[in-house]
Amino acid sequence: MEITFEHVTHSYDANSPMANLGLDDVSLKINDKKFTAIVGQTGSGKSTLVRHINALLKPTAGKIIVGDRVITSETNNKNLKPLRKKVGMVFQFPESQLFEETVEKDIMFGPMNFGFSESEAKDAAHKMIELVGLNQDYLQKSPFDLSGGQMRRVAIAGVLASNPETIILDEPTAGLDPVGRHEIMDLFKSLQTKGKTIILITHNMDDVANYADEMAVMSQGKLVASGLPSDVFNSQKLLEDDLLTLPQSAQFAQSLAKKYFQFDKLPITIDELSAEIKQQVNGD
Amino acid sequence: MEKIISIKNLNYTYPDSKKPAINNLTVDIYKNEWLSIVGKNGSGKSTLTKLIDGLIDADSGTIEIDGQEINEKNIWEVRTKIGIVFQNPDHQFVGATVEDDVAFGLENQGMPREQMVKEVDHALELVGMHKFKKRDPQTLSGGQKQRVAIAGVLATRPQIIIMDESTSMLDPEGRRTVLNLIQELRQQQDLTIISITHDISETELSQRIVVLNDGQIVRDDIPRNIYDMGTDLSKYGLEEPFSDELMSTLRNSVELPESYLNEEELMKRLWKLRSNM
Ligand SMILES: Nc1ncnc2c1ncn2[C@@H]1O[C@H](COP(=O)(O)OP(=O)(O)OP(=O)(O)O)[C@@H](O)[C@H]1O
Ligand SMILES: Nc1ncnc2c1ncn2[C@@H]1O[C@H](COP(=O)(O)OP(=O)(O)OP(=O)(O)O)[C@@H](O)[C@H]1O
Ligand SMILES: [Mg+2]
Ligand SMILES: [Mg+2]
Question: Which InterPro entries match (chain B) (predicted)?
Answer without folding.
Answer: AAA+_ATPase, ABC_transporter-like_ATP-bd, ABC_transporter-like_CS, ABC_transpr_CbiO/EcfA_su, ECF_ABC_transporter_ATP-bd, EcfA_1, P-loop_NTPase
